[in-house]
Amino acid sequence: MYTNGNADMSYVETNTKSPLYKHVAKTYAWMFLGLLLTFLTCVALYATKLVIALFITWWLPFALLVAKLALVVFLTARLHKMSVGAARGIFLGFSVLTGVTLSPLMLMYEAGSAIFLFGVAALFFGVMAGAGLVTKRDVSGFAPIVLFGLIALVVMELVSLFIHMPMLDTAICFIGIAIFLGVTTYDAKKCKDYYYAYENDAQMLDKVSIFSALNLYLDFINLFLYLLRLLGKRR
To answer: Could you list the residue ranges that cross the membrane (predicted)?
Structure first.
């Protein structure tokens, strides 16, 4: 029996929004867990001096990069077919591998500078992710723009390997920061879109939660790295 239209509407909104925010909270919890694993891996390698031994072998950084790319490609291509446990395992493995590849940064930059810029990256990330969560705009049309920006950034990075110009490197950092600020908003909104696409499939929701966590994790890591590269104090 409907005696109060406003009260009934409030009840409906509460019950339809709660699962969405649980999904979003789970996604960000996985992202934070990935960041924690990456940080602990970096600290462990630095504290035990293994970071030096690991990178004496010239091919190891390249092998780690290939392994990381393979994990991302495999997760993206097989997301619908793999189990939830496999998706989680790939994400956690990727986080550890990223910690290994980033561990030399602890030898290159002062700890205080890195911690400060980590906080700045977290602030920027939080603002842009918040914007993505509250916006109701359809962001699917921005996918080609995001892809083009990322490809252009990769091309510029490759050019910088052969043309060593301080101004070019600075420009790349500013462009990289701008791109990943935008991509953060895009991926935060996509997290909501995935929920609405799979809200009736609990298993798929768990898997897209991991996939969204990976995307947001990569956004944060890249934002932090460009800030560190631009403003970090070297040892």
So the answer is: 28-47, 54-77, 89-107, 114-135, 141-163, 170-188, 208-228
- CA quadruple 67, 71, 76, 77: dihedral, nearest 10: 80
Residue 151 lies in a domain: yes
* Residue 11 domain flag: no
Q: Is 14 inside any structural domain?
A: no
Q: CB-hemisphere CA count at 13 Å for 38?
A: 23
Number of folded domains in the chain?
Answer: 1
Long-range own/partner contacts, residues 170-177 (CB < 8 A, 24 or more apart): 170/230, 173/226, 173/227, 173/229, 173/230, 174/230, 176/222, 176/226, 177/124, 177/223, 177/226, 177/227, 177/230
Query: Residue 210: which residues within 8 A CB-CB, separation 6 or more?
Result: 30, 75, 84, 87, 88, 91
Would you state the pLDDT for residue 141? Answer: 74
Among 198, 220, 225, which Cα is nearest to 101's?
225
Parent domain of 130: 20-231
Whole-angstrom Cα distance, residue 218 to residue 70?
Answer: 15
The pLDDT of 89-101, averaged and rounded, is 94
Q: Which residue has the tokens 């104090």?
A: 233
